[in-house]
Amino acid sequence: MIDLRSDTVTRPCPEMRRVMADAPVGDDVYGEDPTVNRLEEMAAAMAGMESALFLPSGTQSNLAALLAHCQRGEEYIVGQQAHTYKYEGGGAAVLGSIQPQPLEFEADGTLDLVKVGQAIKADDYHFAKTRLLALENTIRGMVLPMDYLHRVSAFVKQHGLKLHLDGARVCNAAVALKLPVSDITGLFDSVSICLSKGLGAPAGSVLCGTRDFVAAARRWRKVLGGGMRQAGILAAAGIFALENNIRRLRADHENASLLAQGLNSCPGLRVQNGGAQTNMVFLEVSGEQESAFVGFAAEHGILLSVGRPMRLVTHKDVEREDMMRVIEVLQAFRFPQ
Ligand SMILES: *Cc1c(COP(=O)(O)O)cnc(C)c1O
Q1: Ligand 1 midpoint to CA 274 (Å)
Q2: For the segment 311-332, what is each residue's pLDDT rounded down to a tens digit?
Q3: pLDDT of 5-60, one tens digit each?
Q4: Which residues have C-beta within 8 Å of that of residue 58, sequence separation ≥ 6?
Q5: Substitution site in 87, 194, 277 for ligand 1 pocket (most atoms within 8 Å of beta carbon)
Q6: Cα 243 to chain center, whole Å?
Q7: Whole-prediction pTM
Q8: Confidence of residue 305 (pLDDT cuts 50, 70, 90)
Q9: CB neighbour list of residue 278: distance below 8 Å, 6 or more residues apart
Q10: Atom of ligand 1 nearest to the CA of 57
């Protein structure tokens, strides 16, 4: 099967499994797992931050960050379609009594700073206290422009807010910009990075920030049930991912471009923005044929998720030749006349 549903479907390669099996471990809740400690040092260095924390998932990592930044009765400003607002079960409200203040994203995935400024609450006991701005990069596969991030960084300082990045795919952004990850993440107070998406680890995220912030997040991780014991077996996969699977993201982006080009010339199909966004292609299928289209693809060994538009995601377990095959198959789909 050629699985383009998400980059979360990547499987650990044999070498990754080997380093996992060989990893020295200890009890990480005691701070004694040398492999977890090494991953956390590597992640902090990569992000240009003082400290880092290994967590089982990106959802828990973002939640621990929100809990560490915001107290009960405080709020974070976030995009309406952001993962930290829409796709995490309302965790900040459920478990932290933290109020989200969602705003519509602009077409390029930025939040308009004029609108953000208008959403910041005055110091008045009618209102929640605005504490944090949360961004996502990449966002729907799009890379946030660096000049925008510099403006955001100055903006939050001026308004006394903290700035969090859901950087689940920030390595894709860095590779696309040909910049070190720290050029992006260094502009934020905290960043959460997924090891289990395009980087190919079976589980895990790292949350980076100041020493004090990470100490607070570490406390929340335990509260959330995320304190793991001999977690070095998972952390070893994360180390392998950081060492071997970042540079190769370029190939995923090239494959997505190839796919976008091929599909855009098929009758009945339209690629949004005419091309790929890092490792994602957003595909419009005419005539409300999405389900039939996905069924047809599955019969030919290609897994897609239904959506409007449909999101096709490239990753390390699909090759250039697979893209050719996908284009060939999808081209053959017959729309009802
Ligand atoms: C996947 C994802 C997360 C959450 O990661 P999980 O490990 O699936 O919990 C957070 N933010 C974004 C943008 C993601 O794509």
Answers
A1: 26
A2: 999 999 999 999 999 999 999 9
A3: 999 999 999 999 999 999 999 999 999 999 999 999 999 999 999 999 999 999 99
A4: 83, 166, 168, 192, 194, 196, 205
A5: 194
A6: 18
A7: 0.97
A8: very high
A9: 138, 141, 142, 143, 169, 172, 173, 175, 176, 249, 252, 253, 256
A10: 7
